[in-house]
Amino acid sequence: MDAAQPRTLRLGTRGSPLALAQTRAVLARVRAAAPGLLAEEQVIATTGDRVQDRPLADIGGKGLFAKEIHEALRDGRIDAAVHSLKDLETALPPGIVLAAALPREDARDALILAPGQAAPNPADPLAALPRAAVVGTSSVRRQAQLLHARPDLRVTLLRGNVQTRLNRLRAGDMAATLLALAGLRRLGLESAASMVLAPEVMLPAACQGIVGVTARADDAPVLALLAGLADPAATLAAAAERALLGELDGSCRTPIGAHARLLPDGSLHLTGLVARADGSVLVRRDLVGKADEAAALGQELGRMLRAESPRDLFA
User: Is position 286 annotated as part of the catalytic site?
Assistant: First the structure.
Protein backbone atom coordinates (compact mmCIF):
# COMPACT_ATOMS: atom_id res chain seq x y z
CA MET A 1 0.00 0.00 0.00
CA ASP A 2 1.31 3.46 -0.89
CA ALA A 3 2.62 5.38 2.12
CA ALA A 4 0.45 8.33 1.17
CA GLN A 5 -2.71 6.27 1.59
CA PRO A 6 -4.55 6.11 4.92
CA ARG A 7 -4.27 3.04 7.14
CA THR A 8 -8.00 2.96 7.83
CA LEU A 9 -11.10 4.30 6.10
CA ARG A 10 -14.36 4.73 8.00
CA LEU A 11 -17.21 5.24 5.54
CA GLY A 12 -20.32 6.98 6.87
CA THR A 13 -23.69 6.00 5.46
CA ARG A 14 -27.39 6.14 6.06
CA GLY A 15 -28.90 2.93 7.36
CA SER A 16 -31.46 2.11 4.65
CA PRO A 17 -31.01 -1.14 2.72
CA LEU A 18 -30.18 0.83 -0.43
CA ALA A 19 -27.64 3.06 1.34
CA LEU A 20 -25.96 0.01 2.83
CA ALA A 21 -25.88 -1.79 -0.52
CA GLN A 22 -24.23 1.24 -2.12
CA THR A 23 -21.73 1.64 0.72
CA ARG A 24 -20.72 -2.02 0.57
CA ALA A 25 -20.17 -1.69 -3.17
CA VAL A 26 -17.87 1.28 -2.48
CA LEU A 27 -16.08 -0.69 0.24
CA ALA A 28 -15.44 -3.50 -2.26
CA ARG A 29 -13.90 -1.01 -4.69
CA VAL A 30 -11.76 0.54 -1.93
CA ARG A 31 -10.45 -2.84 -0.78
CA ALA A 32 -9.63 -3.84 -4.35
CA ALA A 33 -7.77 -0.58 -4.92
CA ALA A 34 -5.90 -0.68 -1.60
CA PRO A 35 -5.28 -4.23 -0.36
CA GLY A 36 -4.43 -4.20 3.33
CA LEU A 37 -6.43 -1.07 4.06
CA LEU A 38 -8.87 -1.46 6.96
CA ALA A 39 -12.17 -0.16 5.56
CA GLU A 40 -15.50 -0.30 7.36
CA GLU A 41 -18.98 1.19 7.26
CA GLN A 42 -20.43 3.37 10.00
CA VAL A 43 -24.20 3.87 10.01
CA ILE A 44 -25.41 7.34 10.92
CA ALA A 45 -29.09 8.16 11.51
CA THR A 46 -30.25 11.25 9.63
CA THR A 47 -33.20 13.57 10.15
CA GLY A 48 -34.42 12.82 6.63
CA ASP A 49 -34.71 9.15 7.51
CA ARG A 50 -36.35 9.69 10.90
CA VAL A 51 -39.13 12.02 9.71
CA GLN A 52 -41.25 10.15 7.16
CA ASP A 53 -44.70 11.75 7.42
CA ARG A 54 -43.97 15.13 5.82
CA PRO A 55 -42.52 16.34 2.52
CA LEU A 56 -38.80 17.06 2.65
CA ALA A 57 -39.41 20.71 1.78
CA ASP A 58 -41.43 21.11 4.98
CA ILE A 59 -38.63 19.88 7.23
CA GLY A 60 -35.62 21.53 5.65
CA GLY A 61 -34.96 19.96 2.24
CA LYS A 62 -32.89 17.09 0.96
CA GLY A 63 -29.84 18.27 2.92
CA LEU A 64 -31.44 16.53 5.88
CA PHE A 65 -30.31 13.22 4.40
CA ALA A 66 -26.71 14.31 4.98
CA LYS A 67 -26.66 16.85 7.85
CA GLU A 68 -25.59 14.41 10.56
CA ILE A 69 -23.19 12.68 8.16
CA HIS A 70 -21.51 16.01 7.38
CA GLU A 71 -21.16 16.65 11.11
CA ALA A 72 -19.52 13.26 11.66
CA LEU A 73 -17.12 13.98 8.79
CA ARG A 74 -16.16 17.40 10.12
CA ASP A 75 -15.71 16.01 13.65
CA GLY A 76 -13.39 13.26 12.42
CA ARG A 77 -15.69 10.39 13.46
CA ILE A 78 -15.63 9.16 9.86
CA ASP A 79 -13.14 9.66 7.04
CA ALA A 80 -15.52 9.73 4.06
CA ALA A 81 -19.23 9.28 3.35
CA VAL A 82 -21.30 7.53 0.70
CA HIS A 83 -24.39 9.21 -0.77
CA SER A 84 -26.95 8.81 -3.50
CA LEU A 85 -25.70 11.88 -5.30
CA LYS A 86 -29.22 12.98 -6.24
CA ASP A 87 -29.94 13.40 -2.49
CA LEU A 88 -26.84 15.47 -1.78
CA GLU A 89 -27.31 19.23 -1.59
CA THR A 90 -25.64 21.23 -4.36
CA ALA A 91 -23.66 23.53 -2.05
CA LEU A 92 -21.71 21.40 0.41
CA PRO A 93 -20.71 22.67 3.85
CA PRO A 94 -17.33 24.43 4.10
CA GLY A 95 -14.47 21.98 4.29
CA ILE A 96 -16.34 19.09 2.63
CA VAL A 97 -15.93 18.16 -1.04
CA LEU A 98 -17.26 15.62 -3.48
CA ALA A 99 -14.22 13.36 -3.79
CA ALA A 100 -15.53 10.80 -6.29
CA ALA A 101 -18.50 10.01 -8.50
CA LEU A 102 -18.71 6.28 -9.17
CA PRO A 103 -19.90 4.66 -12.43
CA ARG A 104 -23.49 5.57 -13.11
CA GLU A 105 -26.21 2.96 -13.00
CA ASP A 106 -29.20 3.42 -15.34
CA ALA A 107 -30.55 6.89 -14.55
CA ARG A 108 -34.17 6.26 -15.63
CA ASP A 109 -37.29 6.07 -13.48
CA ALA A 110 -39.42 2.95 -13.29
CA LEU A 111 -43.22 2.91 -13.26
CA ILE A 112 -44.53 0.34 -10.79
CA LEU A 113 -48.21 -0.59 -10.98
CA ALA A 114 -50.27 -2.13 -8.19
CA PRO A 115 -51.05 -5.85 -8.57
CA GLY A 116 -53.85 -6.70 -10.98
CA GLN A 117 -53.39 -3.80 -13.39
CA ALA A 118 -52.85 -4.29 -17.09
CA ALA A 119 -49.31 -4.07 -18.42
CA PRO A 120 -48.47 -0.61 -19.78
CA ASN A 121 -48.19 0.09 -23.49
CA PRO A 122 -44.58 0.99 -24.35
CA ALA A 123 -45.86 3.64 -26.76
CA ASP A 124 -47.81 5.41 -23.98
CA PRO A 125 -46.88 3.96 -20.59
CA LEU A 126 -48.84 6.46 -18.50
CA ALA A 127 -52.06 5.46 -20.30
CA ALA A 128 -52.05 2.30 -18.16
CA LEU A 129 -53.13 4.37 -15.17
CA PRO A 130 -56.92 4.55 -14.73
CA ARG A 131 -58.56 7.96 -14.80
CA ALA A 132 -58.11 9.81 -11.49
CA ALA A 133 -55.78 7.08 -10.23
CA VAL A 134 -53.79 7.74 -7.06
CA VAL A 135 -50.02 7.76 -7.56
CA GLY A 136 -47.69 7.80 -4.58
CA THR A 137 -44.42 9.74 -4.67
CA SER A 138 -42.37 12.10 -2.54
CA SER A 139 -40.80 13.74 -5.60
CA VAL A 140 -42.19 17.04 -6.87
CA ARG A 141 -40.22 16.41 -10.09
CA ARG A 142 -42.15 13.20 -10.74
CA GLN A 143 -45.40 14.78 -9.61
CA ALA A 144 -45.06 17.73 -11.99
CA GLN A 145 -44.26 15.56 -15.00
CA LEU A 146 -47.08 13.14 -14.20
CA LEU A 147 -49.64 15.91 -13.82
CA HIS A 148 -48.41 17.71 -16.92
CA ALA A 149 -49.06 14.56 -18.95
CA ARG A 150 -52.14 13.39 -17.00
CA PRO A 151 -53.86 16.26 -15.13
CA ASP A 152 -56.57 13.84 -13.97
CA LEU A 153 -54.20 11.89 -11.73
CA ARG A 154 -54.12 12.35 -7.97
CA VAL A 155 -50.72 12.42 -6.30
CA THR A 156 -50.25 11.45 -2.66
CA LEU A 157 -47.15 11.63 -0.45
CA LEU A 158 -45.18 8.39 -0.31
CA ARG A 159 -41.91 8.38 1.62
CA GLY A 160 -39.78 5.66 3.19
CA ASN A 161 -37.26 3.19 1.85
CA VAL A 162 -37.82 1.20 -1.34
CA GLN A 163 -39.31 -1.82 0.43
CA THR A 164 -41.73 0.37 2.43
CA ARG A 165 -42.99 2.00 -0.75
CA LEU A 166 -43.43 -1.31 -2.55
CA ASN A 167 -45.30 -2.76 0.45
CA ARG A 168 -47.74 0.15 0.49
CA LEU A 169 -48.35 -0.28 -3.23
CA ARG A 170 -49.04 -4.00 -2.76
CA ALA A 171 -51.39 -3.18 0.10
CA GLY A 172 -53.61 -1.22 -2.29
CA ASP A 173 -52.89 2.26 -0.91
CA MET A 174 -52.37 3.57 -4.45
CA ALA A 175 -52.50 2.52 -8.09
CA ALA A 176 -48.85 3.19 -8.88
CA THR A 177 -45.58 4.69 -7.80
CA LEU A 178 -42.31 5.61 -9.46
CA LEU A 179 -38.84 4.68 -8.24
CA ALA A 180 -35.33 5.05 -9.57
CA LEU A 181 -34.38 2.00 -11.60
CA ALA A 182 -30.86 2.27 -10.18
CA GLY A 183 -32.09 1.68 -6.65
CA LEU A 184 -34.21 -1.28 -7.69
CA ARG A 185 -31.25 -2.85 -9.46
CA ARG A 186 -28.89 -2.35 -6.54
CA LEU A 187 -31.40 -4.07 -4.27
CA GLY A 188 -32.09 -6.92 -6.70
CA LEU A 189 -35.67 -5.71 -7.17
CA GLU A 190 -35.65 -4.74 -10.84
CA SER A 191 -38.43 -7.24 -11.51
CA ALA A 192 -40.80 -4.98 -9.54
CA ALA A 193 -40.73 -2.45 -12.39
CA SER A 194 -43.77 -2.60 -14.65
CA MET A 195 -41.98 -0.43 -17.21
CA VAL A 196 -38.83 1.65 -17.39
CA LEU A 197 -39.66 5.20 -18.48
CA ALA A 198 -37.54 6.88 -21.13
CA PRO A 199 -36.14 10.30 -20.20
CA GLU A 200 -38.47 11.75 -22.83
CA VAL A 201 -41.40 10.57 -20.70
CA MET A 202 -39.95 11.18 -17.24
CA LEU A 203 -36.73 13.20 -17.03
CA PRO A 204 -34.63 11.87 -14.14
CA ALA A 205 -33.41 13.83 -11.15
CA ALA A 206 -29.98 15.41 -11.41
CA CYS A 207 -27.33 12.76 -10.65
CA GLN A 208 -29.87 9.94 -10.37
CA GLY A 209 -28.05 6.61 -10.46
CA ILE A 210 -24.70 8.07 -9.35
CA VAL A 211 -23.11 7.19 -6.02
CA GLY A 212 -20.97 10.01 -4.66
CA VAL A 213 -18.33 9.91 -1.94
CA THR A 214 -17.54 13.01 0.11
CA ALA A 215 -14.47 13.69 2.25
CA ARG A 216 -12.73 16.51 4.10
CA ALA A 217 -11.10 18.99 1.74
CA ASP A 218 -7.84 18.92 3.71
CA ASP A 219 -7.52 15.12 3.97
CA ALA A 220 -5.05 14.58 1.14
CA PRO A 221 -4.47 10.82 1.66
CA VAL A 222 -8.20 10.02 1.60
CA LEU A 223 -8.79 12.32 -1.38
CA ALA A 224 -5.99 10.60 -3.30
CA LEU A 225 -7.44 7.16 -2.54
CA LEU A 226 -10.96 8.14 -3.56
CA ALA A 227 -9.82 9.88 -6.74
CA GLY A 228 -8.78 6.48 -8.02
CA LEU A 229 -12.38 5.28 -7.77
CA ALA A 230 -13.89 8.13 -9.78
CA ASP A 231 -15.52 7.37 -13.13
CA PRO A 232 -14.81 9.97 -15.85
CA ALA A 233 -18.24 9.81 -17.50
CA ALA A 234 -20.11 10.00 -14.19
CA THR A 235 -17.86 12.85 -13.06
CA LEU A 236 -18.70 14.87 -16.18
CA ALA A 237 -22.42 14.16 -15.90
CA ALA A 238 -22.45 15.10 -12.22
CA ALA A 239 -20.58 18.34 -12.92
CA ALA A 240 -23.09 19.39 -15.59
CA GLU A 241 -26.21 18.35 -13.69
CA ARG A 242 -25.11 19.83 -10.34
CA ALA A 243 -24.08 23.07 -12.07
CA LEU A 244 -27.57 23.31 -13.58
CA LEU A 245 -29.07 22.86 -10.11
CA GLY A 246 -26.75 25.46 -8.69
CA GLU A 247 -27.66 27.99 -11.37
CA LEU A 248 -31.38 27.48 -10.78
CA ASP A 249 -30.91 27.42 -7.01
CA GLY A 250 -34.07 25.37 -6.75
CA SER A 251 -35.41 24.09 -3.46
CA CYS A 252 -37.15 20.79 -2.77
CA ARG A 253 -40.36 22.64 -3.70
CA THR A 254 -39.08 23.32 -7.23
CA PRO A 255 -39.51 20.45 -9.72
CA ILE A 256 -36.19 20.18 -11.57
CA GLY A 257 -34.86 17.40 -13.78
CA ALA A 258 -31.47 17.04 -15.44
CA HIS A 259 -29.78 14.33 -17.47
CA ALA A 260 -26.38 14.48 -19.18
CA ARG A 261 -24.93 11.90 -21.53
CA LEU A 262 -21.81 11.64 -23.63
CA LEU A 263 -22.38 11.50 -27.38
CA PRO A 264 -20.36 9.31 -29.79
CA ASP A 265 -18.38 12.36 -30.96
CA GLY A 266 -17.25 13.06 -27.37
CA SER A 267 -19.53 16.03 -26.75
CA LEU A 268 -21.94 16.25 -23.82
CA HIS A 269 -25.72 16.41 -24.29
CA LEU A 270 -27.60 17.93 -21.36
CA THR A 271 -31.37 18.03 -20.91
CA GLY A 272 -32.92 20.18 -18.20
CA LEU A 273 -36.44 20.74 -16.96
CA VAL A 274 -38.22 23.02 -14.53
CA ALA A 275 -41.92 22.95 -13.77
CA ARG A 276 -44.71 23.98 -11.46
CA ALA A 277 -45.59 21.23 -9.01
CA ASP A 278 -49.17 21.00 -10.32
CA GLY A 279 -47.89 20.37 -13.84
CA SER A 280 -49.47 23.52 -15.26
CA VAL A 281 -46.08 24.84 -16.39
CA LEU A 282 -43.21 22.72 -17.70
CA VAL A 283 -40.15 24.08 -19.49
CA ARG A 284 -37.71 21.58 -21.01
CA ARG A 285 -34.60 22.41 -23.03
CA ASP A 286 -31.50 20.67 -24.42
CA LEU A 287 -27.95 21.89 -24.91
CA VAL A 288 -24.84 20.26 -26.37
CA GLY A 289 -21.31 21.38 -25.56
CA LYS A 290 -17.75 20.32 -24.90
CA ALA A 291 -17.43 17.54 -22.34
CA ASP A 292 -14.47 19.23 -20.67
CA GLU A 293 -16.69 22.28 -20.05
CA ALA A 294 -19.44 20.29 -18.31
CA ALA A 295 -20.00 22.72 -15.46
CA ALA A 296 -20.21 25.70 -17.82
CA LEU A 297 -22.72 23.79 -19.94
CA GLY A 298 -24.88 23.17 -16.89
CA GLN A 299 -24.73 26.80 -15.87
CA GLU A 300 -25.68 27.96 -19.37
CA LEU A 301 -28.67 25.64 -19.57
CA GLY A 302 -29.71 26.65 -16.08
CA ARG A 303 -29.71 30.30 -17.12
CA MET A 304 -31.77 29.44 -20.20
CA LEU A 305 -34.37 27.60 -18.14
CA ARG A 306 -34.60 30.37 -15.59
CA ALA A 307 -35.01 33.02 -18.29
CA GLU A 308 -37.86 31.09 -19.92
CA SER A 309 -39.72 30.17 -16.73
CA PRO A 310 -42.25 32.11 -14.65
CA ARG A 311 -40.52 33.81 -11.72
CA ASP A 312 -42.75 32.13 -9.15
CA LEU A 313 -41.13 28.77 -9.89
CA PHE A 314 -38.08 29.92 -7.95
CA ALA A 315 -39.76 31.90 -5.20
Answer: no
